[in-house]
Design brief:
Shape: globular
Oligomer: single chain
Helix content: 40-55%
Structural class: mainly alpha
Strand order of the largest sheet: 1-2
Length: 213
């Protein structure tokens, strides 16, 4: 197995590009949850929602706003509307997000591919809180756009660990990642984890490309 060692860097959260029932989850990720978790967890959650919504939900406009901006606006929404503390975070993010594509700012990058830069390299640069938030955000969004899709039966932390093991990266040394998986979409790895049904770190039988449907 080939590994690539890269310097650890901090990735700025810049440009990206039938609803789940609040009563469905025993511990819903709503306003109370949002205000209780760390800013990094919220950042990761927004990234997961944006990746899912822009690809699975075909909502390309939401990926044109900065992740940090969406996170701050969602937080402000809950602060300004305490009566909506029971509203799911995924709903709020989609509501406060842009309804039309925003122009790319001067010097901004445009990413190609279905999932843009939400890949293995992006994953290894995130903190554990951001990774966990990403998984939670993607799962919540996917349950919204694909309510009849295969369920995620395990705790989000299990999927987070599985993805890290599959990519060959750890928080102890984020500079290491498998060469053949550094550009694999996080979303495809998450779907592989959903289908794995085995201990974290086990080798899935299908490639990321085969897991897209």
């Amino acid at each position: 197995m080939k590994l690539r060692t890269l310097p650890r860097i901090i990735l700025p959260f810049l440009i990206l590009t039938a609803l789940p029932s609040e009563a469905r989850a025993a511990n819903p990720r709503d306003g109370a949850w949002w205000l209780a978790v760390t800013t990094e967890r919220r950042e990761g959650y927004v990234a997961g929602v944006v990746d899912c919504s822009s690809t699975e939900g075909k909502n390309r406009s939401i990926g044109t706003e900065r992740l940090s901006s969406l996170q701050k606006r969602a937080t402000k929404h809950y602060a300004d509307h305490p009566d909506q503390a029971g509203k799911l975070a995924v709903r709020v993010i989609l509501e406060v997000g842009p309804k039309k594509a925003l122009p790319v700012p001067k010097g901004g990058e445009v990413y190609s591919g279905e999932h843009g830069f939400f890949d293995g390299n992006f994953w290894r640069m995130m903190s554990e809180d951001q990774q966990l938030g990403f998984v939670e955000g993607y799962i919540d969004c996917l349950s919204m756009v694909q309510p009849k899709g295969a369920p995620f039966s395990k705790d989000p932390a299990w999927y987070q660990e599985w993805i890290s093991e599959w990519l060959g990266t750890t928080q102890r040394d984020q500079g290491v990642i498998r060469l053949d998986r550094e550009t694999a979409a996080i979303a495809n790895a998450l779907k592989l984890a959903r289908n794995a049904g085995s201990a974290a770190g086990s080798e899935p039988r299908r490639s990321p490309e085969e897991s897209r449907k």
